[in-house]
Specification:
Helix content: 55-70%
Radius of gyration: 17 Å
Order of helices and strands: HHHHHH
Shape: globular
Strand content: under 5%
Number of strands: 0
Number of helices: 6
Distance between the termini: 38 Å
Mean pLDDT: 93
Number of domains: 1
Largest sheet: none
Length: about 160
C-alpha cells in the first residue's frame, strides 16, 4: 500500500518552489491584464496545470515549449472540429478528449494539461478564435515568462537544450 502513497519527486528547496509560485502568480496577472487590454481572455483552467509543469518541473520533457504550445493547440483544434462538426453529447466529448490525448502522444507533443483543453472546448462551445485567444496567446505567454523567470536565481535551464 505504501507504494501508492509514496511521494516520488526528490525533496526541493523553498526558493525553487517559492519562485515557481511567484512566477505563476505574475504570469496569470500578466495574462489577465493583457487580455483586458486586447478585449479577450488569455486564461483558461488548463493553463494553471501548465504553469505547475513549466515553473515547478521545468526540466520535464512535458514542460518544454513545443509540448506546451503544440499540445494545447492540437487539443483545441481537435476539440473545435468535434464541437462544430459532431453532435453534442457525452460520448462525443469523451471520445474527443481521448482522441486528443492519442494524437498529441503520437505527435510527441505530450503535455498532460492539454487533455483538459479539449474538454474545455467541448464544455464551452467557443468560436474558432479560441485557437488564438486564449490557447495560442496563453501558451506563448506562459513560455515567454518561463524563459525569463528561469534565468533568475535559483537558475534553471529552460528550455532544455536540443539533444
Amino acid at each position: 500500500m505504501r507504494r501508492y502513497f509514496h511521494r516520488h519527486p526528490t525533496p526541493s528547496c523553498l526558493p525553487r518552489w517559492g519562485k515557481a509560485g511567484l512566477a505563476a502568480a505574475v504570469t496569470f496577472a500578466v495574462m489577465a491584464l493583457a487580455g483586458d487590454a486586447v478585449g479577450a481572455t488569455l486564461l483558461m483552467a488548463p493553463m494553471g496545470a501548465s504553469a505547475m509543469l513549466i515553473f515547478g518541473v521545468p526540466e520535464s520533457p512535458l514542460a518544454q515549449p513545443a509540448h506546451v504550445v503544440g499540445g494545447h493547440l492540437v487539443a483545441a483544434l481537435l476539440g473545435l472540429l468535434a464541437d462544430h462538426l459532431l453532435p453534442q453529447n457525452l460520448w462525443v466529448m469523451a471520445a474527443t478528449a481521448g482522441v486528443a490525448i492519442m494524437v498529441i502522444g503520437l505527435l510527441r507533443l505530450t503535455h498532460p494539461p492539454a487533455g483538459g483543453t479539449a474538454l474545455v472546448v467541448m464544455l464551452t462551445h467557443p468560436a474558432w478564435s479560441f485557437l488564438v485567444f486564449p490557447v495560442l496567446s496563453g501558451a506563448m505567454t506562459l513560455v515567454a515568462v518561463a524563459v525569463l523567470i528561469h534565468r533568475l536565481p535559483p537558475r534553471t535551464r529552460y528550455p532544455l537544450p536540443v539533444p
